[in-house]
Each structure stands twice: as structure tokens, then as C-alpha cells.
Design brief:
elongated; 25 strands; 5-stranded antiparallel sheet; alpha+beta; 368 residues; 16-stranded antiparallel sheet
């Protein structure tokens, strides 16, 4: 195997796979990527749950294939200044030459690389890359990291077919907060589906489509999802299990409404939470007509208090939150103002963008 590659081309391709390769694995092959050179060059990486395969623009001199340490070649590509010549040698070594710099890396046989799932599918849909990226950003922060409630460790893709298109809902929750966003996409679907995409796959997908305005085609198989763009295919194993009924969590009868400037609330939360307990991040909001007072108390440190203006005409009420959960929600929201819809101090709070009812956030209050 022998090929010439522009530094930017190999650097960009290796950047995509850095999050896919498994750096802490007991299987050395999973910290490598497969460089396959036939009539065209391609690279593949996997951690056995997700996989990425894509084209590599190169001048092919000799065909072949080899598994190459992904992190080390990426570091080399970042530091050299000219094009790279990659040449396989005996016993799975690869020589990397750029200008007057020469590196030798110990590789592994191409035959050792795990087989990737074939891109078969029964259903598919297409979605704009920018729209999909935004939907992931607005929901993935709410996913869990639980060893027991493993179905919460991913995003729910709830697909509901209609005559002309598909309603797509993406939902993230960790049991303390929930984020859900809805859109309509083009495609063919045999039946309603609820698919759980692992958080890592969602984050790698977001990275893959960063800055793209292309359409992404999503293929649905029994145990996998395939995301295809510009020759790149990200494959993800689905999380097995039943996702909680998220629609039951979203309150329908919250009758108290607060409208507040998003940036003002976010900055006040950041400042006031400086004095909250690190373990709970607890902060109290005192609601009064036309204002909110934010209060945090820590017996070991002291307290913080800040007042901001708000549009609220209901009765006075105090309600406690985890400040970090509130800040995560506000950071994901667009627009100048947000709506908080409440009922009782310990009932779920609904948080909405003022001009977008397709995006819904719920946070559970806490005792302060």
C-alpha cells in the first residue's frame, strides 16, 4: 500500500474519527482505524457500538490495507507541514514521510479489523443537516449517565408516519429534566417507531455534520441506524429497552406564567449559584408581580441574592431548582425571552421559547 495525501485531507478525516476510536480499550485494534486502498481510498473506525466509514482523497500509488494507530497519525498530521506519503512495510509497519520528516508506526493487519454492519434498511427519512444538528444540541444535554436506567443514556427518536411525511420527535431526559423538540421530515415509514440513539453516537453525529447544509439520509434497521452524508456513513447500534412515556411528564395544566429575558436570567443564575452548595446547586426563585428574586444559601460560605424584572401577575410563590439544570436549558434556547409555566412549588416546570412551541423543556423543582 502506498499513497500521497494532502495534510489537510488526512487531518480532517482523522478529526472525524477521534471520538469514535476507543482509547481505553483492552482490544488494541479498536484504537486503530482501517485504511483501505483500492480504486479509491477509504477509512473506517469503530468501538463496536458506533462506526464511521468515509472516503479519503488521495493519490493512489499502490493498493492495499492496514490498521493504523488513529491518535498518533492524527498528531503527526497536525505537526508536519507538507503532504504525507504513507507506505506500508513488512510486518504491518507503516512509514509516514513529509518533507524531511520520517515516522514509522507499528500497525495491525487489515484482516483483524472488525466487520462493520451492512447498511441494510427497511425504512428511511431525510433531514437537513443544520436542522438535525440543532435538534441534537437542544436535547442531548438532558440525557443521563446511569448504570441502571440505561435507556435514559441516549436520545429517543420517536417517528410517527402520516400520509405525506413523518413527524420526528427527539427527546432527552435523565429523570430530573426533559427536553423535546419536534419537526416534520420527508421519508417512508412502515409504522410508528421509537428508537434510542446512544449519547456518544449523537455527539459524533453532531460533529460529523458541523457546518454542513446538506441533507442527511437516515436508514433504519432492526438494531442499527445509519446516517449518510457526502460518502460518510455513521453507524450506531440502538439501545435496547423501553423508553419512559415522556408525554406523561410534560405538564398540560400549568396556569402560572412568567416571561423573562433569557440572558438576564442566565447571568443572574450564574452569579447567584456561586454561593450554592456544590453537590445540589440549589437556588430559590421568589416570584412576585413584575420581578424574580434569586437566592442561594450555603451555611459554610454565606448567601447570594439578586433581583431581575419579569412579567408575572400571579400570586407570590417560591420554587427551588438545580441551577445547573436551569442554565443548561437556557443555553440551549434561542430568542430574547423565555416562558416559565408553573403550577405548585414541587410540580414540574415547563420552560418554552417565546416564539417556538415545537421545543419543550421540563425541569423538576427541588426543596430548598
Amino acid at each position: 500500500m502506498k499513497l500521497k495525501i494532502q495534510r489537510e485531507a488526512i487531518q480532517n478525516a482523522l478529526q472525524y474519527i477521534q471520538g469514535v476510536v476507543d482509547k481505553k480499550t483492552t482490544m488494541p485494534i479498536l484504537s486503530h482505524f482501517l485504511l483501505q486502498v483500492d480504486d479509491a481510498a477509504s477509512l473506517m473506525a469503530t468501538d463496536l457500538d458506533i462506526a464511521l466509514k468515509g472516503p479519503l482523497e488521495a493519490e493512489i500509488i499502490q493498493k492495499g490495507g492496514l490498521c493504523i494507530p488513529a491518535r498518533k497519525l492524527f498528531e503527526i498530521a497536525k505537526e508536519v507541514e507538507g503532504e504525507l506519503l504513507l507506505e506500508s512495510q513488512d510486518n504491518n509497519w507503516i512509514k509516514v514521510t513529509s518533507g524531511k520528516s520520517t515516522f514509522k508506526l507499528m500497525g495491525l493487519p487489515a484482516s483483524d479489523f472488525p466487520a462493520l454492519p451492512e447498511m441494510s434498511h427497511t425504512d428511511e427519512f431525510a433531514i437537513d443537516a443544520g436542522q438535525l444538528r440543532s435538534m441534537i444540541e437542544k436535547t442531548v444535554y438532558a440525557t443521563g449517565d446511569s448504570d441502571t436506567r440505561y435507556t435514559l443514556n441516549g436520545l429517543l427518536l420517536h417517528l410517527i408516519p402520516s400520509k405525506d411525511d413523518i413527524e420526528l420527535k427527539i427527546v432527552g431526559t435523565d429523570g430530573h429534566r426533559l427536553s423535546a423538540i419536534t419537526t416534520r421530515v420527508k421519508g417512508a415509514l412502515s409504522e410508528e417507531k421509537k428508537l434510542i440513539l446512544p449519547k456518544k453516537a449523537a455527539l459524533e453525529l453532531k460533529k460529523l455534520i458541523e457546518g454542513s447544509s446538506d441533507s442527511i439520509t437516515v436508514y433504519i434497521d432492526k438494531n442499527h441506524l445509519f446516517f449518510s452524508r457526502d460518502g460518510f456513513v455513521l453507524t450506531s447500534r440502538l439501545i435496547e429497552g423501553t423508553y419512559p412515556n415522556y408525554e406523561q411528564v410534560i405538564p398540560k395544566s400549568n396556569d402560572k406564567q412568567v416571561s423573562v429575558n433569557k440572558i438576564a436570567l442566565l447571568k443572574a443564575l450564574k452569579r447567584t449559584s456561586l454561593m450554592s452548595r456544590e453537590r445540589t446547586n440549589a437556588i430559590r426563585l421568589d416570584l412576585e408581580p413584575e420581578k424574580i428574586t434569586l437566592i442561594s444559601m450555603n451555611p459554610d460560605l454565606g448567601e447570594a441574592r439578586e433581583e431581575i424584572s419579569a412579567q408575572y401577575k400571579g400570586e407570590e410563590m417560591s420554587i427551588g431548582y438545580n441551577a445547573r439544570y436551569m442554565m443548561d436549558i437556557l443555553n440551549a434556547m434561542d430568542g430574547e425571552s423565555v416562558l416559565l409555566e408553573l403550577q405548585e412549588p414541587l410540580s414540574p416546570t415547563l420552560i418554552l421559547e417565546s416564539d417556538n412551541r415545537n421545543y419543550t423543556c421540563v425541569v423538576m423543582p427541588m426543596r430548598t
